[in-house]
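U., I forgot to send this yesterday:
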Amino acid sequence: MNEAPIACRTVLVLGGARSGKSRYALALAEAAAPERLMIATAEALDEEMAARIARHRAERGAGWTTREAPLELAAALREEARPGRPVVVDCVTLWLSNVLLAGGEVEAVIAELAALALRLPGPVIFVSNEVGGGVTPPSELGRAFQDWQGRANQALASACDAVVAVTAGLPGLVKPAPAPALRLR
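Result:
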């Protein structure tokens, strides 16, 4: 039996690399409205990434507008989020990497984004990688990134109305979810 969908204004979609999280986020936005905005955080720093970005843009097709915001994500959301038009942020992981490598105030921008998610005037879907389930990175920068990414995901999960974990293309609702109760006997 299918349950009725839960109405949400903000959704965090988590998953590993190639888990299907972006495809899920796009489908969620496409089902909601004919006009949608993609806020892309990737930068075409090499030929492979440029080709990847071009392929993703072509795959989105009609009904999508793209705005690039590799560093100023909160500003882009303040300008672009509005009722009636879903925004997909793809992805928080690349944005955080950009901020960290640019020497930005990582803790402050994470807090700003989470606070903003609570008061956005329109629907937003954040896509982010779950990076803490693998091997601990061997470098100091890698470990710092993994720590910050975990903190960013926690902050957004707390701020968003819903959290969906995508594994092997299959979405699972994490929030809201029923809370377990311990049976004492």
